[in-house]
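Predict the 3D structure for this chain.
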Amino acid sequence: MIKRAISKNYFQWDGTDVPIVFDQRIVNKFLEENKDPINSALYYNNTDTKILIYEDRVKTWFLDVAKYLTIKNNIVLSSGEDFDTNEAGFVILQIAISYIEGNQQYREGTTSHRKSKSFFTSAMKRIFPEILKIENINPILNEFYDQVRCGLFHDEITKPKVIISGELSNAVEILPTDIRINPYKFLDRISEDFNNYIFQLKDKDNNELRKTFELRWNITG
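Done. Predicted structure below.
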């Protein structure tokens, strides 16, 4: 059997018929209410297990990595080449941007297939409510989507109207002439949204939020 990581801290054994998940950090301890007395495992089909896996994936494989890159230091790569994390702004922003549309799918309970822009712009309004003060915000957000999101994911660089700098005072400023982003503060706002979402998801009284999460999860797992 192959030990398959489904997040940094959770794994399954391929080839088994029992849908259970193991936490690599805990040995011989039961987790949550659904537990297997032999394997000390979480049942994969349990909603709370899915939430734990989703949380662990986003936090440890993406947001924590981006957060590490915000640490200002010089390191030497295995190749012997110097690397300055001050040059990580675009990567930090790309990780943060990837969260926006992905998380919105769980909030809406479906995929963003052929609706990517609307999912992205809806999430931007939630995460950065201050931009709602901008007159005629919808076409402006459409341009943000094109300049920032599509630039990073299709061209591997933001488009010409985008300025990124760790010296900017706000996470994001959308002006008539340009789009200004502080990638460090932008990441902080993304992390705040994620932490709030997970906190709410774990509340069993939030039935609708948990329902939409489950619907999206069950599309791809």
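The chain has two domains: 1-45, 58-220.
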